[in-house]
Amino acid sequence: MLLSFTDDLSTFQAADFKGFFVGWPTAPSENALYQTLQAAYRVVIATDQEQVVGFINAISDGQMSAYIPLLEVRPEFQGRGIGKALLRQITERLSHLYMVDLCCDPELKPFYQGMDFEPLQGMCLRHYERLQALTNL
């Protein structure tokens, strides 16, 4: 498998992002995901020359802070270092900022700690019912 990474979304279509969000109770549609990636401050896409195998995005004010809301790797490609490579690529693109934050499920903390992220206390507000609307975009 020969991986390549790009931040150019113009060569992709929404259909290229099918098959992600495995295990999510309500997965956004490919169109909703594509629109989300288009609106991102930074995005990195991993391909194996045949298909998109993973992606990561960041939203930011461009001056001080960024937030990484999504890092996804197709299940059949997990465990090959793709997530780590995507995280390294995006943090390099965000290295001019003071802070880069993300939230993750407890079982993912060791992955992020191994990539130099530190645990913080945080709070969130979720409107899970709004996620349902994104399945139909």
Comma- or semicolon-separated keywords:
alpha+beta; Aminopeptidase; 5-stranded mixed beta sheet; 23% strand; globular
What is the fold's blueprint, element by element?
Blueprint: E1 4-6, H1 30-39, E2 42-47, E3 52-60, E4 65-73, H2 82-93, E5 99-102, H3 109-113, H4 128-133
Parallel strand pairs: 4-5
Antiparallel strand pairs: 1-2, 2-3, 3-4
Question: What is the oligomeric state here?
Answer: single chain
Specify the CATH homologous superfamily.
Gcn5-related N-acetyltransferase (GNAT)
For the record, what CATH class applies?
A: Alpha Beta
How much of the sequence lies in strands comes to 15-25%
Rg (CA only)? 15 Å
What is the N-to-C order of secondary-structure elements (H for helix, E for strand)? EHEEEHEHH
Which percent bin holds the helix content? 10-25%
Largest sheet: 5 strands, mixed
Number of domains: 1
Give the overall pLDDT as a whole number. Answer: 94
Architecture, CATH level 2?
Answer: 3-Layer(aba) Sandwich
Terminal residue distance: 32 Å
The parts where pLDDT drops under 50 for at least 5 residues are none
Give me the count of strands. Answer: 5
Structural class: alpha+beta
In the sheet with the most strands, the strands line up as 1-2-3-4-5
State the helix count. 4
